[in-house]
Design brief:
heterodimer, A: 132 residues, mainly alpha, 7 helices, 0% strand, elongated, B: mainly alpha
Chain lengths: 132, 59
């Protein structure tokens, strides 16, 4: 378990937004950077699990912003960081939703992105010493 | 491909979201676990209650 001294040391010097950016790009990596191995592993497993299941359910990856709902979906998807860009590059994710579970899959992918943003902000709070 | 039932999808969603909520919203490991369980129960129970409500309204 981290001590107050560790937290103060973590909040000491360097670029304070690094855990936020790294945590956004790779789920859990912001916590790994701060040596919070257990928390990072659970966060990575949860966010990756949710994203992978969303893809496995043939969920849709939003690619354009034609109307307000698509913009919101795209914003959620972008929260996945590199996972989103790599998946788009590999052509993963069904475009039109064809089965019932695909609609769940689409929500899983969007929520995985939103959870990743929460995790990245948590890493930033740990880095600044706002949270222990 | 993965085609879970409605309930399995709810449980999986609740599980993943609760883990992230527990870790990010509380500071000590014990409180993280309690809050994660609390969120999981709330997610699952509210989905079941709302499902029954919609079923009864549809009848």
């Amino acid at each position: 378990m981290a001590t107050t001294q560790d937290n103060n040391a973590a909040a000491g010097s360097g670029f304070v937004y690094l855990p936020l950016i790294v945590g956004w790009l790779v789920p859990g990596a912001g916590h790994f950077l701060l040596r919070k191995w257990g928390r990072g592993a659970f966060l990575a497993a949860s966010i990756l699990g949710m994203f992978v299941m969303g893809i496995a359910m043939q969920g849709k990856l939003y690619g354009g912003a034609h109307d307000i709902l698509e913009i919101l979906g795209l914003a959620g998807d972008l929260g996945n960081g590199l996972l989103y860009f790599v998946s788009r590059a590999l052509g993963l994710g069904a475009d039109p939703v064809q089965v019932t579970t695909a609609d769940y899959g689409t929500r899983f992918i969007v929520v995985a992105g939103l959870l990743n943003v929460i995790a990245a902000v948590d890493a930033h709070n740990l880095r600044t010493g706002r949270k222990s | 491909m993965f085609h879970p039932s409605h309930f399995a999808a709810v449980v999986l969603f609740a599980l993943f979201a609760s883990v992230v909520f527990g870790i990010t919203q509380r500071e000590t490991p014990r409180r993280m676990v309690y809050y994660g369980i609390y969120c999981f129960v709330l997610f699952t129970a509210s989905a079941v209650v709302l499902s029954w409500l919609m079923f009864l309204i549809a009848r």
